Amino acid sequence: MAVFLDRLGRLAFRRRRRVVLMWMVALVAAGTASALAPAVPDGSYSMPGTESQRAFDLIEQRFPGAGAGGGAEGASAKVVFVAPDGQKVTDRQNRSVVDEVVGRVGDVDQVVRAADPFQADAVSEDGSTAYASVTFEVKAKDVTDAAKQDLEKAVEAGREAGLTVEVDGSVLATQPSGGVTELVGVVVAAVVLLLTFGSLAAAGLPLLTALIGVGIGTATILALSSALGLSSATGTLALMLGLAVGIDYAMFIVSRYREECARGRAPQDAAGVAVGTAGSSVVFAGLTVVIGLAGLSVVGIPTLTQMGLAAAGTVALSVLVAVTLIPAMLGVFPRAVLARPVRREARAGTRPAAGADKPNLGGRWARLVVRRPSAVLLVAVAALGVIALPAAKLHLGTAGDESKPTSTTERRAYDDLAKGFGPGFNGPLTIVVDARSAEDPEAAVAATAREIGATEGVVSVSAASFDTAGDTAVFTATPATAPTDERTVDLIHTLRGARPAIERATDATFMVSGSTAGNIDSDQKVQGALVPYLGLVVGLAFLLLLIVFRSVLVPLKAALGFLLSVLAALGAVVAVFQWGWLAGLLGVHQTGPIMNTMPIVMVGIVFGLAMDYEVFLVTRIREAHLQGEPPGRAIVSGFRHSARVVVAAAVIMISVFSGFIGVGETLIKMIGFGMAVAVLFDAFFVRLTIVPAVLALLGERAWTMPRRLERIVPHVDVEGHALTRDAATTAVPTTAVPTTAVPTDAAATDAAGRAALPVRDLPVR
Question: What are the distances in angstroms from CA 186 to CA 470, 653, 655?
């Protein structure tokens, strides 16, 4: 692997103009294709294998015209009227205002029908609230701004007349936008890169290449969105991940290039070694991210599959950009990315000073951890364990208008309807009755409706609507509780549990569907898929890390550390989005259940990124160990070379993910926050603290493997041992480095496993 990537890096360095031109052509081609592609379709969310989806499919089959025009696919709205305190909407003056507003709404362009609430029985029992159902002839995204403005003017006229008038429905739906927070994340990343490298060229190169990779990836997704039916969240997730890993991967290769140049290598040789060593880590780290994202396919939810595969493709593209475009750009600016002292020495023709291996903060931190590994491990695990406690109270669901701020008319309309008609009004259950086997379909449907209406927890049932054949009917059952209430979940299970008895009595079968039932089915499907998904991705990544490090304990430690960090991240998400801690600070306007797809998406992403840091850090530690350093000193050496870059990479990822907290879409907001805290916990608590502590406790055992596995597992030179073993002949000799004590109480062992001198007595370069 290392030798192949070394050759690839050298080739890209030599053929830099061709490589850069190739990527520019790819960027222009992808951008052109996305510009010429049809518009992105409306987001569709299907749940194969669930009862709610089967019911929806039956409606599509038996009621073929239901989705056309003014049907299910057309935009809709509810105009909600609330009378002043002590009055009723049925009072003569208030009723005339309602009639006037409904008439004006009916005259709005693209409106097919505005139902009169007094004729449609859409008035609450106490007469305080009424609503008018409005149907448009086009989809929500095709409603013109002029039509929306006319609707707002009609509503405002009702408010001026003294009524409280609010609007709810898909006609108000807007595409999620992130505002300036996403840009802030990129700016913070640029500042971190500049502070890390101390060079504008070195800081700008990772940003430039990451933007090129993300640009190609997201443009390709947009170009294919219409053909493949991809949702808007698909591109957002790909942008989020592609930008984060693209910067990090480029950063590691550029950092290794600067390190090799500081050791005296020629630019082309340094580029080859950088791609061969750091590039090998990038390839395997990228593979773990791809495994985690592609594994979302096992959940069986098409939307998640699309999101996972699209993001995985963008990450794979970022890896390809890192190992080809980065060395090509280094060929264009071979000296500009170097630190100022190295550039000075290169211009003067002098040898680099012996300073590449000077002690730094990363090395000092590693010494501290290696000195007291047990205490450090206990404190870190306890801290993450406490943060993870709220995850035990995780409640999955789907956020609706109730999660929007009260400043929006949708939220106010939701609250008014719940107050006037009951909390279950906002989440009615759709009952689909198939009476083809019944002798009298109408009687069978009526009997089914009576049984469902008599069920405890059901407030009312509507009149049934039959298909043209007269043997299939649809009606709604209104629960007594809100859509996200646990009692509504119990009600749906009760209705489905009573189905066999009702079928025997009526010779007709029924299914419970609708958005509320669909959300509950989605929750259960995601929960059921979580364990198999974790088993798949952890198992595949364990095998991958087993090959990379030729160790059983290192991959096991990596997997356990990941589980700890992801549980802590879920705990933080529950505390903020479900319990409301710091909710106002993060723009969370209403607490409630966690979006059902969020945990499994976050698990897939966090797993891949956690393995990123594991590969980057442990590869340098193993590289030092293979060069003859004992385990304790190898930890310090590995941290001295990689900790600073890993910290910078983590800060960049946290900044990029935090930028998506400002996105209006709840799922993306949750993922952005969850990913930011997950990277924080995994990078600083697990990889930079728990990993060195565990490795110090394991000692030589961390790098051993059973003999049977030793013969089976293929050799993959990720550390670039074949490239660096001849360093004495290719690098400029340096002066002797004074001995530095490694503060630890652990005893080192030699290669044969025999006890050697205490690590604290061994010299550290």
Answer: 60, 10, 7
Task: Residue 548: count other Cβ atoms within 10 Å of its Cβ.
Answer: 27
Most confident of 370-384, 632-646, 701-715: 370-384
Report the alpha-carbon distance of residue 353 to residue 418 in Å, rounded. 74
3-class state of residue 466 by DSSP = strand
Single-letter amino acid code for the residue at 127: G
Rounded to whole angstroms, how far apart are CA atoms 453 and 446? 10
Amino acid at site 747: A
Minimal CA–CA distance to 10: which of 337, 273, 322?
Answer: 273
Residue with tokens 């690590």: 759
Let me know: does 130 contact 114? Beta carbons within 8 Å. Answer: no
Lowest mean pLDDT among 472-476, 480-484, 543-547, 749-753: 749-753
pTM for the full predicted model: 0.76
Query: From the CB of residue 288, how many other CB atoms can be counted at a distance below 10 Å?
Result: 26
Distance CA 658, CA 665 (A): 14
Task: Specify the higher pLDDT residue, 634 or 587.
Answer: 634
pLDDT 10s digits, 45-93:
677 888 999 999 999 888 875 543 334 457 889 999 999 999 999 999 9
What are the beta bridge partners of residue 397? 595
Pairing of strands 472-479, 429-434: antiparallel
Q: What is the DSSP string of 30-55?
A: HHHHHHHSPPPPPP----TTSHHHHH
